[in-house]
Design brief:
The complex is a heterodimer. Chain A has an eight-stranded mixed beta sheet with strand order 15-16-14-13-12-11-10-17, sandwiched between helices. In chain A, strands 2-1-3-4-5 form a five-stranded parallel beta sheet. In chain A, strands 8-7-6-9 form a four-stranded parallel beta sheet, sandwiched between helices. Chain A is 40% helix and 18% strand. In chain A, helix 20 packs across helix 21. Chain A contains 23 helices and 17 strands. Chain A folds into three domains: 212 residues, SGNH hydrolase (Rossmann fold), CATH 3.40.50; 147 residues, Rossmann fold; 174 residues, Gcn5-related N-acetyltransferase (GNAT) (Aminopeptidase, 3-Layer(aba) Sandwich), CATH 3.40.630. By secondary structure, chain A is of the alpha/beta class. Chain B has one domain: Orthogonal Bundle (Non-ribosomal Peptide Synthetase Peptidyl Carrier Protein, Chain A), CATH 1.10.1200. Chain B is globular, with a radius of gyration of 11 Å. The chains are: A alpha/beta, B mainly alpha.
Chain lengths: 576, 78
């Protein structure tokens, strides 16, 4: 982790080329250092943090007063740090009969705040202070500080599930990892009213930027594993599949078992697991297929690469199959040479150090928080299967000489409908994930999607795609804004790269044009807003027959509905 | 450790934390003499010194020094 001093020196660097995020910081303790750490960490993550620091101890006033500086500032993110220290003080000043209401009172405030503040709220939960007034017996006393504090942290999780714009930043988890004496420095507190130590600040800032980055669409999608001495102990080529170290009992095998269990949980969460190993492929596969102690099975691996080529080339190959950005990949390897080789050749891939002792792998990896996310749905869990299916589809395609015949043979069906309670989670999630096939890269939360679905000024469409190999689920979203009675503006068009080259773009346009015709619209306007990642769709509208609007300030394109002649597609529309 | 030795080490910490290699400390130096030395960077300096000398100041000590000399006396006593 970078030091506070390094973060501070980042403030002198030029961040003008980074996108600006407006962040308000509200706290009941002094925040000068936290503000420096957040801005410095913002630089590390390629954001310019435009920070509004409310005056000390103004959380309630800023939130309750609709004319406050906070509302004037209109932040994208409001980071709220209500400290355990001040909560304990409040508790201590309460009459004893009121102490049992501490958690509920604070939760009411958080709820009110989330309703009032625009943008997202990133709320720090409460690292524990054990006041030992009751000792361990506090667990049996509902009015004890320990009880109220734990209740508060627990209920914050429930609140976050109910309120889409509330995100908890788990600094209590940080304290669990590093200890209270690491998090808190009494000297700093006494002389400055700040409750975080200089050593803790970079971690707190990092976890905060993890949350913001995930909401902005920066998160990891794929974990690439080395095998020998990373996934299991020993060298399978030398030791044989039955003698590698994995499994419970005495010795280092359990460290690898637990590491594999962690990987399996990630896979269930929807992270794609790939293997990149210097081995003969048949030998590398044997443990997965034959060793009963292996937690990871061959079905858990979406892409399996074992050969003697260099690992940077192999990771490029994995990337080409998965079609995701290098910056969404994490590579774990025990060998420092391989780590450096990948870092040098593929600087966007995240390549963490690993401790020398495999027994320390997991605790070290935990400290990195590599897989922050801003959404989760059960559809994520199917992703490995989808990528395995994709490689089958690729081999079928090779057996057809004619693309149309291939597409016809797939028997593709798409369900088209507006936003409703069944699909808002997935629509919002795709809105945050889609980087490449995304024309304007406007990120919408679940709450935004819900209100767009109701809004008469907009027409919304979601598309699924299934074929004979399986169901891809919801893969494309269109949001049309009704500019006037004759004109539709394509506010949002994004699509999962999984379904490229299936004619989905033509089918989608056909759906839009059909809607326009039925509702009397004469023109459709599309816009391309370039980002670092969406070059793929630069020519999207011209390819579909839109004409560039000359003289427009941005890259806008127009389609006259009456003139439109669509291309042929092989997708059947399915409606209820 | 001799006072001079401590002063040299503290000076290095000042230069590092305040990111200014031209800082020269004497026992008489006060916060007014060093541009970057404010109440906030003071905390960074304290933490830096505590780590380098593997000592811990009390809250009272931190607020009591009037110049670098008094700070060094305090380190020497630890």
């Amino acid at each position: 982790m970078l030091s506070f001093k390094e973060l501070k020196s980042n403030l002198k660097k030029d961040n003008s080329k980074f996108p600006v995020k407006k962040v308000a910081l509200l706290s009941d303790v002094a925040t000068q250092f936290l503000a420096v750490a957040l801005k410095g960490m913002g630089y590390e993550r390629n954001y310019g943090i435009d920070l509004f620091e409310a005056e000390f101890n103004q959380v309630e006033r800023q939130v309750m007063d609709p004319t406050s500086d906070l509302y004037q500032f209109a932040p994208d993110y409001t980071v709220v740090f209500q400290s355990t220290h001040k909560l304990l003080e409040k508790y201590s000043l309460m009459p004893p009969e009121a102490q049992a209401t501490l958690a509920d009172e604070r939760l009411d405030f958080v709820q009110l705040m989330c309703q009032s503040v625009s943008g997202r709220v990133v709320y720090y939960n409460y690292p524990e202070i054990e006041d030992t007034v009751f000792g361990s017996y506090a667990n049996k006393v509902a009015s004890s500080f320990t009880y109220q504090l734990r209740k508060l942290n627990f209920e914050l999780m429930n609140l976050a599930q109910k309120i889409p714009n509330l995100f908890i930043c788990d600094i209590a988890g940080l304290q669990n990892k590093f200890g209270r004496d690491y998090m808190f420095d009494s000297n700093i507190y006494v002389s400055t009213e700040m409750v975080l130590s200089l050593d803790a600040l970079p971690y707190v800032a990092s976890r905060t930027l993890d949350v913001i980055g995930a909401i902005e669409g920066k998160f990891k999608k794929c974990l690439i594993l080395d095998l020998d001495n990373t996934t299991w102990g020993g060298i399978v080529g030398d030791d044989g599949w039955e003698n590698i170290q994995v499994g419970h009992g005495l010795g280092i095998g359990k460290a690898f078992s637990e590491f594999q269990q962690w990987v399996k949980k990630l896979k269930h969460r929807g992270i794609i697991i790939a293997v990149c190993s210097k081995n003969d492929e048949d030998k590398a596969r044997e443990p997965f297929e034959k060793n009963p102690e292996m937690v990871l099975k061959i079905d858990d691996i979406a892409v399996f690469v074992a050969n003697w080529n260099n690992k940077a080339d192999n990771i490029r190959h994995i990337q080409s199959i998965l079609n995701i950005g290098f910056d969404s990949m994490v590579f774990l390897d025990d060998n420092p040479f391989e780590r450096n080789l990948v870092r040098e050749n593929l600087p966007d891939v995240t390549v963490p150090e690993l401790p020398e002792d495999p027994g320390e792998y997991l605790e070290y990896i935990y400290s990195l928080n590599l897989f922050e996310t801003a959404s989760y749905s059960t559809a994520d869990a199917d992703r490995t299967l989808q990528y395995q299916v994709e490689s089958k589809r690729a081999s079928l395609m090779q057996s057809f000489t004619n693309e149309a015949d291939f597409l016809k043979s797939l028997g593709m069906v798409s369900e088209v409908k507006g936003f409703d309670s069944f699909n808002t989670v997935r629509v919002a999630q795709l809105s945050q994930r889609s980087n490449q096939f995304n024309l304007r890269t406007v990120r919408y939360t679940q709450a935004d999607i819900e209100s767009l679905g109701q809004d008469e000024e907009y027409a919304t469409f979601s598309f699924t795609l299934a074929d004979k190999f399986g169901d891809n689920g919801l893969i494309c979203v269109i949001i049309l804004k009704k500019l006037d009675t004759e004109t539709l503006f394509v506010d949002t068009w994004f699509m999962s790269c999984r379904v490229l080259k299936r004619g989905m773009e033509d089918f989608t346009l056909h759906t839009i044009v059909e809607y326009a015709r039925e509702n009397g619209y004469k023109r459709i306007i599309g816009e391309y807003l370039p980002t670092a990642k969406n070059q793929m769709v630069e020519e999207h509208y011209p390819k579909l027959g839109f004409k560039k609007i000359e003289g427009a300030a941005s890259q806008q394109f127009e389609l006259i509905v009456g003139d439109h002649q669509g291309k042929e597609f092989y997708i059947t529309k399915h409606t209820h | 450790m001799e006072q001079q030795e401590i002063l040299a080490k503290v000076q290095d910490i000042f230069r590092d934390v305040l990111d200014n290699d031209s800082i020269v400390l004497t026992p008489q130096t006060t916060a007014d003499d060093v541009e970057e030395w404010d109440s906030l960077s003071h905390i960074q300096l304290i933490v830096g010194i505590e780590k380098a000398f593997k000592i811990k100041f009390t809250s009272k000590e931190i607020l009591s020094w009037n110049n670098v000399g008094e700070m060094i006396d305090c380190i020497a006593k630890k």
